[in-house]
Amino acid sequence: MFLLDRFWSLFSQDMGIDLGTANTLVCLRGKGVVLNEPSVVAVKKGTNKVLLNGQAVGNMAKRMIGRTPGNIEAIRPMKNGVIANFDVTEKMLRYFINKVHNRRWGYRPRLVISVPSGITDVEKRAVYASADRAGARKVYLIDEPKAAGIGAGMPVTEPTGNMIVDIGGGTTEVAVISLGGVVTKQSLRVAGDRMDEALVHHMKRTYNMDIGPRMAEDIKITIGSAHPIEEELTMEAKGRDFITGLPRREIISSEEIREALREPISSIVESIRLSLEQTPPELSADIFDRGMVIAGGGALLRGIDKAIARETGLQVTIADDPITCVARGTGTVLEDLSRMAGVLESSESDY
Fold first, then answer.
1. CA 75-81-86 angle, 5° bins
2. 188 in helix, strand or coil?
3. In CATH, which superfamily holds the domain spanning 161-190+268-322?
4. Which helix (H) or strand (E) holds 90?
């Protein structure tokens, strides 16, 4: 077995994968993040057949969302951080692994894959099975908050309290980590996607206008905020009138969008409060001194750090390059798997 492992090592590079609801990021050992593409696949409707000879994945597939004819659909095989479509997830993983290796044969990489901390055993087995069928030689899982903490440079293996809040596309992971283990955690299925849904509902309720998920995301990125900003912003939102069915546009403001985002942001803050309430006193003291770190795409929402600091009274820091934190954390684990074994959730042999 050792000789076989050495043989495959000649052909393959180990990978860390942030298999997210919105985006998949791949980190190569020693090279950093080499791929960041949407977790979207375009398939023939009613089947799991990927279009364009299996190439309609990632960036290409995302451009098709809302623009496909009746016989094609662009789907996201991940939902709330876990696999919703097993076959399509396997094909998506295979495509990304092949794209990174830039060849179609001879690769059997070891993978470290991040998963939500609230994932079930059944959902874990689905990740293992998908990765195995996609060509992995060995699969390890790591909790997303641990990976995010490592990627953010937090001393998660030391006997101190480290609080990380990872706001992704499908889930928000809140955890207090010490000595490489999660002491308290909250896995909340409220994150970037729920914010987009809140904006869709706002436009329908306020303007009687239907907008798509891409327009909602553009609004969130362009003028969205969680805390009052120095200079309020406006933008043009485009969609379809619910009454006439005709295209229309509206000028919307950052103030109203902030109000529309209030509910999902309040849910995230409440999850942080619950995690703090469950934290042992000694670790709470560490968090009071050190504050918390926010990672994930949700960390880019304007004023999210100020909103959380206002509600908790703690120092809040946005991680450097928060979108890649989890992927970089898996890459750090890959650098020394034997030394970092204590932070891993499990390996496929446990199942």
1. 55
2. strand
3. ATPase, nucleotide binding domain (3.30.420.40)
4. helix 86-101
